[in-house]
Design a protein that fits this description.
By secondary structure, the protein is α/β, with parallel strands linked by helices. It contains ten helices and nine strands. It has a single domain, classed as 3-Layer(aba) Sandwich (Rossmann fold). Helices cover about 40% and strands about 15% of the residues.
C-alpha cells in the first residue's frame, strides 16, 4: 500500500506555494460597526509592528463579538532606523484593516526596550515607564495584552518589564492582564482561545500589510501552522495532561491573571478553554478600576 501521507504533504506544499502569490496589503477594509463611546477597552502593547496581528486573536474576538475597543500601542517601530517610517505606515494600514485603534509612543518608537538598558540607565528607563503609565491611565483598559517574561526576544522581554513597571506606577488600578507568547512558549499558559477560520484569515491579511517584513520571511503564511500547534500544546497544558484535545483547528495560548494591589494575582486553579461559541467577555466580568 502506498503511503497516503505523501500526497497529503504534497498538497500542503502546493497550497503554501500558492499562498506566496497572494497580494501583500492593498486589500479593501472590511465594513464594521464602530464601538460605543463607553465600550470596554483592550490595550495591546506590541514590541514590534506586526505583533498585534499575531497574538491579537482574543482581542479581535472581543471587538467583533462583544463590541470592545481594541487599541494597539506601538512600543517600538523596529531597530532599523531606515525602516521605522515605513513600518509605521504598514502598521497603520494593518490596524485599520483589523479595526484596531493605534497609539504611538514616540517619534520612531521607543529605543532600547530590553532588560540590559533597564539596568544600565534607570533614569531613561523611568521616563519610558512613566510614558506607558500615562497611556494606561488615559485609556483605563479593562484588559492589557503584553508578552510574558520569557518570550525569548529581548524586546519582547523588555516590553513585559516596561508594562509591569508602568503598572506599579498605578497602585490603585485593578484590571485583567493577559500575557502573550510568540518567540518563546510559556511554561504554564492557563487559557486557550479558539480562533475561527474567518478571524485567522483576517489576521493573515492584516499581517500581509507589513510588506517589508513578510517579503523577507513570509511568516504570515505559517500563522495557521503555529495556531494548529497551539491546539496540540494547549490540549495538554491548558486542558490537562492526558485529556482529549478539543476539536479546534486553530487557537492562541495566553496566561490570564488579574492585576490588583500592585501585583498579579495567582493564576486560577487549572486552565480554561474558550471555544468559538463561548462569550470571550465572560473572561473579564470584573470592572477595571483606575485611580
Amino acid at each position: 500500500m502506498k503511503n497516503p501521507y505523501r500526497s497529503h504533504i504534497n498538497r500542503l506544499l502546493a497550497w503554501q506555494a500558492r499562498g506566496r502569490a497572494l497580494p501583500l496589503g492593498g486589500l479593501d477594509r472590511p465594513r464594521r460597526r464602530a464601538p460605543a463611546k463607553r465600550a470596554p477597552c483592550a490595550l495591546i502593547f506590541s514590541p514590534h509592528p506586526d505583533d498585534e496581528c499575531i497574538v491579537g486573536g482574543l482581542a479581535l474576538r472581543l471587538q467583533r463579538e462583544c463590541g470592545w475597543r481594541v487599541v494597539n500601542v506601538a512600543v517600538t517601530q523596529g531597530s532599523r532606523k531606515d525602516r521605522q517610517a515605513s513600518r509605521w505606515a504598514e502598521l497603520t494600514e494593518a490596524c485599520a484593516y483589523l479595526g484596531f485603534e493605534l497609539i504611538g509612543t514616540a517619534p520612531g518608537g521607543l529605543e532600547d526596550i530590553n532588560r540590559a538598558s533597564r539596568e544600565r540607565d534607570p533614569h531613561a528607563w523611568r521616563n519610558k515607564v512613566e510614558l506607558v503609565a500615562r497611556i494606561l491611565r488615559e485609556q483605563e483598559p479593562r484588559v492589557i495584552f503584553f508578552p510574558h517574561d520569557a518570550d525569548w526576544n529581548s524586546t519582547h522581554i523588555g516590553t513585559h518589564l516596561l508594562v509591569a513597571d508602568a503598572l506599579l506606577l498605578c497602585p490603585g488600578c485593578s484590571c485583567a492582564v493577559v500575557e502573550t507568547e510568540f518567540w518563546g512558549a510559556m511554561a504554564a499558559p492557563n487559557l486557550m482561545v479558539e480562533i475561527g477560520a474567518r478571524e485567522l484569515a483576517d489576521m493573515m491579511a492584516a499581517l500581509s500589510f507589513h510588506v517589508g517584513e513578510v517579503q523577507r520571511n513570509p511568516y504570515h503564511l505559517t500563522l495557521p501552522a503555529w495556531m494548529q500547534d497551539n491546539v496540540r500544546r494547549g490540549g495538554e497544558i491548558v486542558g490537562g495532561q492526558g485529556g482529549a484535545a478539543p476539536p479546534f483547528n486553530f487557537a492562541t495560548l495566553y496566561r490570564l491573571r488579574r492585576w490588583t494591589g500592585g501585583a498579579p494575582a495567582p493564576s486560577r486553579e487549572g486552565g480554561r478553554i474558550l471555544g468559538a461559541e463561548d462569550d470571550p467577555a465572560a473572561l473579564f466580568t470584573e470592572q477595571a478600576v483606575w485611580k
